[in-house]
Design goal:
The structure holds two protein chains of two kinds. Chain A is built from six helices and five strands. Chain A has helices spanning 3-13, 20-25, 27-50, 57-71, 73-76, 83-103, and strands at 121-126, 141-142, 156-163, 182-189, 195-200. Chain A has a five-stranded antiparallel sheet. Chain A starts with a helix and ends in a 6-residue tail after the last strand. The longest helix of chain B is centred in the first third of the chain and has 23 residues, at 21-43. Chain B starts with 8 loop residues before the first helix and ends in a 16-residue tail after the last helix. The chains are: A alpha+beta, B mainly alpha. At the A-B interface, helix 3 and helix 4 of A face helix 2, helix 3, helix 7, helix 8 and helix 10 of B.
């Protein structure tokens, strides 16, 4: 093996025992082998470091809901577990009420005009101070991982079109064949322009 | 004692298509981590990685999802969908990691680097430096490093995922590693930019 063959072999197959005879005779190629082995050890360490990273559990829950709605529609609406959606709705309604109380604080400043985040296509914008007064009948669902609204925070409500798959992220069942459809939704945006809660428009499942 | 061997991806897929929830859960738990990490490394955004993971497995649930065991492994199929979705996200500008750097592609370095740059690659700071370096690779090199070096996808599967010959996977990997070594070397010994150099003597 000459230096050229050594370089070709290490490029194609990485460090391997066939390289050792030549590297024992050639200091330059030996140094190259050391560099390659060092990098490989580093990459192995990075891979081990990342190994624990996994998708959040809510992804599995959403997918499971989609799977059930596809294969076991009756089970998806199991009457023996009626309290689960009821509890979810009660919790959501409670959060909306708390948010509404904060928003109705008398010292709130004038609302800032914000735009929708780039991942959604804006259909129309509602920008009225009255839109803060969301009560539990408004059906807004807090978004997972979204920061809670501050008491005097300016908010906007925008109407957007989002893929139906967005319903999965708030725990609503969606058939896999319909995930790419667009649905209209009202999104509450905080003063920082980030979405905090969502309400799907004209969705009977709500 | 009779120990049952773990089910293969294809066996789980068949049961999944038959509507068996346990098979879907088993397959999801087996493969979601790699898909999530691939999407995270490529996008730099946990939110995008989460969306991509969800979309990949939703695609698997669809009727006529297009998976054909004769054309590759299920793992490769899932990575392939994830990659397509990522490219779409990148076109929309929903990623935090830079996509391409033509300057880096123009001058691919040889594997010339000081050895002490590699000494601590397995230590905390070295690992972080290497992660940063991977994140700044141009997309075509980053994806091959993430697939082959970090997720241990074999070259044949990687070629199917990337839609290129195995030889291209090998050459991209080689160039990617050369770029990584160069970036690590630069981090330890930053090169002065042209603007900071002063002329000592004019020779003309």
């Amino acid at each position: 093996m000459n230096c050229q063959e050594f370089r070709k072999s290490i490029a194609e197959a990485g460090p391997n025992p066939d390289l050792l005879p030549h590297s024992n005779q050639c200091p330059a190629c030996a140094a190259l082998l050391v560099r390659y082995c060092g990098l490989q050890a580093g990459l192995t360490a990075v891979a081990a470091e990342l190994r624990h990273l996994e998708a959040p559990e809510r992804v599995e829950l959403g997918l499971l809901a989609a799977f059930r709605s596809q294969h076991h529609p009756a089970r998806a609406a199991d009457p023996g577990r009626w309290w689960i959606p009821a509890l979810s709705w009660a919790t959501a309604a409670g959060l909306v009420t708390v948010a509404a109380l904060f928003l109705l604080h008398p010292h709130r400043p004038s609302p800032a005009h914000r735009t929708a985040p780039p991942s959604v296509e804006m259909a129309s914008v509602t920008d009225s101070p009255d839109s803060y007064a969301v009560d539990e009948d408004d059906g807004f669902i807090p978004l997972p991982n979204a920061r809670k609204l501050d008491p005097n925070e300016d908010v906007n409500v925008v109407r957007v079109e989002v893929p139906r798959s967005a319903m999965l992220s708030v725990g609503l069942a969606v058939g896999p064949d319909r995930v790419s459809e667009l649905v209209e939704a009202d999104v509450v945006l905080g003063a920082d322009g980030l979405a905090r809660a969502i309400r799907f428009v004209d969705e009977p499942a709500m | 004692m009779n120990v049952k061997p773990p089910e293969t991806d294809d066996q789980l897929f068949v049961r999944l298509r038959a509507g068996q929830e346990a098979a879907f859960i088993a397959l999801y738990r087996k493969r979601q981590g790699a898909i999530f990490r691939f999407a995270l490394q490529m996008s730099g955004s946990p939110a995008v990685a989460e969306d991509i993971t969800q979309e990949v497995f939703l695609a698997l649930l669809r009727d006529g999802c297009g998976y054909d065991p004769d054309r590759g492994t299920l793992s490769g199929y899932l990575f392939g969908i994830a990659r397509k979705l990522l490219l779409r996200q990148m076109e929309r500008g929903r990623v935090d990691v830079p996509l391409e750097s033509d300057a880096e592609e123009a001058a691919l370095p040889e594997l010339a680097v000081e050895e002490n740059a590699l000494e601590d690659l397995t230590h905390r700071e070295g690992i972080e430096a290497l992660r940063r370096a991977i994140g700044t690779l141009p997309r075509r090199y980053r994806e091959v490093v993430v697939l082959c070096d970090l997720e241990e996808v074999d070259y044949a599967d990687a070629a199917i995922v990337l839609g290129c010959p195995i030889g291209t996977v090998r050459s991209r990997l080689h160039r990617a590693r050369a770029l990584l070594l160069d970036k690590l070397n630069q981090e330890r010994h930053p090169r002065p930019s042209v603007g900071t150099l002063k002329a000592i003597r004019c020779l003309t």
